[in-house]
Amino acid sequence: MTSCYFPEEEITENDLYFVCYMIERVARKLHQRNRYVVNHISQEEWELVIRLANVFHSENPLKIESEWIKEYHLDQGNFDIADVDAELVEVIPSETQMGKVYMRLILSTQKPGEDFVEGMIRVYNDEICDVIDNYNCSAYYEPSYAITRAYNEGGF
User: Fold this and answer.
1) Under a CB-based contact definition with an 8 Å cutoff, are residues 6 and 54 in contact?
2) Contact 45/72 with Cβ under 8 angstroms?
3) Which of 22, 27, 32, 89 could form a disulfide with 77 if both were Cys (CB 3.0 to 4.6 A apart)?
């Protein structure tokens, strides 16, 4: 898979990270789960988004967030990822931190012949995301290999 504007440039892990980061931002803004954002944008659109990620890196994330919400008709929900037990969680992980968690999981479980978009759709639709996104537990904080093992084994 290559960039739309620069056909000689391959899509990189950093492009995947950027997309995962933006999914996290938009989902938090809308009080939705990440899978809502992933599933309300078509695979064809995701392929375009990831191909343009190297260009979007220089844009204001608030602008991209707003454009995605408007362009893809994403609705407000009632899931607040920041609604945690204060006795268990002092600080919730940032969008950048969770973008890295998901990027690593996609890369570490990538199937032969699967591109980043296919992997992204597969991972974000797995039930393990409900555990990873529950900040009252420490799943998101586990080392990448432990999260990968849990994904491959069907849970923590």
Assistant:
1) yes
2) yes
3) 32
CA atoms lying within 13 Å on the CB side of residue 87: 0
User: How is 70-111 classified by DSSP, letter by letter?
Assistant: HHTTPPP-S--TT---TTT-SSPPPHHHHHHHHHHHHHHTPP
Q: Which amino acid is at 70?
A: K
pLDDT digits (tens, 9 = 90+) for 105-153: 999 999 999 999 999 999 999 999 999 999 988 888 899 999 999 999 9
Q: Inform me whether the pLDDT recorded for 85 exceeds 80.
A: yes
What is the residue type of 63?
K
Count of beta carbons in the 10 Å neighbourhood of residue 43: 13
